[in-house]
């Protein structure tokens, strides 16, 4: 009896381990599972055929407070405008999930299949070429396939304004930026930012320095992570110790470490947030956000879905390019910094924005959509 | 330590080969010293490298000509290596080795900082900040592994601690309640690890990895479903206050780093001393080592092997949980999914690199912290040295250590072997 007990123990143990592993993985997946179904009452649904808008998220999941969340919000907003829209999404937990996710929606007969994020570019083009009858769309990437509607953003234009603002606001004459990873959707912010500072220097004859990014060499500070706040804090402290007093982290959750440093600095350090207005997406740090470089993914996705639902064609060329002129990118209002940014700087920013739209000031980036 | 005495005896008894450990290390030092003096010296511009004694460019500074400094410290490293090669100061070979490595690092810094400045307070503080969770994590590992239980779940314990600290700390609006919950969070993972590996004899590495997955899954799920929708109620933990010890805090560089700090800094440093003393001088420590090295023998003399292992693994859970608290209660004011970002695995590396001893773990953690801080510093001053290289330094150092190139890393003999009374 005693011996049998000894033999069986590891077996039971392994069972428990298997349960733990399965439980952990299920919970991880459940966190980004199906959204609560919102039934659409009313006769309009039956009047028009349902337009299935299906979205495959990037690995960040639906609640990433960044582009996945924005794109999903866009689809939901579209549903309010065109009630025959039937939204669905599936979350990718790794890059290997992109293709199966897209294919699955093809076989489910989705009318509009949205891929979110530049990393999904290759997978989307591949699946779109296989199933030429389905309509695809992608955020943050171009595509060679004619049935993919690309939605890209000239983020460098808004980042340029942010750079100008930072240079004008800085008291130490040094501003800083760092990225999550050295990939085009990140470095496009940093390029624009550095150019905006350079523009300020030529216009004013000043010498404000940018720490953390060298546009010419395309090299700078990177956290190698989008969720490591401690690392973000450490990088920020280094930049601050080098003299920077305005910092723009382009690093998702890692950037919250920057906001924490700014909060501790009692007003000495200001932060420029990215993607979604910081006062909405990271509201607890609203006091430290000088402004935000906004990428209006929500609006772009909404428009595309509404167009599709109304039966209009979504043409792949030129697709959608969000820039300052169509409010696809912008800089947010100054919130608590409103009184600290002087009026001349504000009017210069307005002027600069008009100049960029008119094309008299050109902002270029190697990572910009072509 | 009993094992150390045995090694020393054999060293005396056996005739040493000419290329002893000391000579091999000496040769390596001579080579890197030469490299530093020649390469760093020739690349360094002949400008002043300023090391300011403050958090920024202000205040007093130690200043040295970059080129001169790079060559000087390179030669010093070479000299230290030469002394080891010549067989001088055999008993003090570790001191020579440390001095040599220090001189090499200084030579490198003189090259990089030339024409610029490095704020020493910021560098030291940043090093300690990045090292702090690693110290606590590695100490948790020491407790478990010295008694024979492999703990790969440090990452999971960190996450659980960070999560529990943030959640309960916010709900109770007390940082101390948060700290205690963080410790409990670590203990939960430790308890599962202990039961599965000690009672159910499951492969300990597998259990550890599974627990990491489990912690990641459950904290991620609760974060998205509970914390994210209502951050005000569940995810705004109070921050641990910084305490200043008058007089001591005025010492340059060391003062503001060590004596104007939060409680966790002192807890971590005190634990290093306490665990070291405990392991080497107390009955508990002797028994722990006995259980980790030779459980059958320990059992024969009446030590409760499993009981002691349970106790140590759970104590380790407390320590690692407190390490997790650092992420949410000290470093930042909120929890995010997978925010520990692999720190638990670096702590594991620090444990091995530190040869399973508390002071070794402290040294390794500080070294890893310094490498990370230096990487961010170098990329901020736009150094030509790729930051990726410095980012991989901790792992490279551990590989070298484990491969046995620098001394021998020996795990406790019964580490990872479940004890079956039979």
What does this structure look like?
Chain A is an alpha/beta fold and 370 residues long. Chain A folds into two domains: 44-153 and 299-322, Rossmann fold, CATH 3.40.50.2300; 155-295 and 339-358, 3-Layer(aba) Sandwich (Rossmann fold), CATH 3.40.50.2300. Helix content of chain A is 43%, strand content 17%. Chain A has helices at 2-30, 44-47, 67-81, 98-107, 121-130, 155-169, 184-204, 229-241, 256-264, 278-281, 297-309, 343-358, and strands spanning 51-56, 85-90, 112-116, 136-139, 148-153, 174-179, 209-211, 213-214, 219-220, 246-250, 270-275, 289-295, 320-322, 329-331. In chain A, the strands form three sheets. In chain A, strands 2-1-3-4-5-13 form a six-stranded parallel β-sheet, with helices on both faces. A six-stranded mixed β-sheet of chain A has the order 7-6-10-11-12-14, sandwiched between helices. Chain A has a two-stranded antiparallel sheet with strand order 8-9. The relative contact order of chain A is 0.13. Residues 33-47 of chain A have low confidence and may be disordered. Chain B is mainly alpha-helical. Chain B has two domains: 2-115, no CATH class; 121-402, ABC transporter involved in vitamin B12 uptake, BtuC, CATH 1.10.3470. Helix content of chain B is 69%, strand content 5%. In chain B, the strands form two sheets. Chain B has a three-stranded mixed β-sheet with strand order 2-1-3. A two-stranded antiparallel ribbon of chain B has the order 4-5. In chain B, a hairpin with an 8-residue loop joins strand 1 (48-52) and strand 2 (61-65). Chain B is globular. Chain B starts with a helix and ends in a 20-residue tail after the last helix. The chains are: A alpha/beta (370), B mainly alpha (422). The interface between A and B is large, with 55 and 59 residues.
